[in-house]
Design a protein that fits this description.
- This protein has one domain.
- About 40% of the residues lie in helices and about 5% in strands.
- The chain is built from three helices and two strands; from the N terminus they run H-H-E-E-H.
- Helix 1 packs across helix 2 and helix 2 packs antiparallel against helix 3 (about 90-105).
- The longest helix has 18 residues, at about 90-105.
């Protein structure tokens, strides 16, 4: 059981979700990452937060975030043309900066 308040968990930074996404699998990865990080306390630096998100991305997709091509993850496939595809550039260029910004605002 965590020894910190739920609002201090990394998962709290995921609410609300972004209004735009890279590919159709990204919202499902966002939700999976939020669930996976409910027991992880927010780190003390922005760099540590980014590294934590990158690590979770790799654990959940099986690929590093440095991958440039879309990644197919069948567990995030729920219909549509790019269903199950995750966009590493979205995570590097939009998601991580958004989460780091929220981390800074909630210090």
């Amino acid at each position: 059981m965590p020894t910190f308040a739920p609002s201090e968990a990394v998962s709290a930074l995921f609410d609300p979700a972004p209004s735009t996404w890279g590919l159709r699998g990204d919202p499902y990865l966002w939700q999976a990452m939020q669930r996976a990080l409910t027991t992880v306390a927010r780190p003390s630096t922005a760099a540590s937060l980014a590294a934590l998100i990158e690590s979770a991305f790799e654990q959940l997709t099986g690929h590093p975030m440095t991958h440039d091509e879309p990644i197919y993850a069948p567990e995030y496939s729920h219909g549509g043309m790019s269903s199950g595809l995750v966009s590493p550039p979205f995570w590097r260029e939009v998601a991580i900066p958004l989460l780091v910004q929220r981390w800074g605002e909630r210090l």
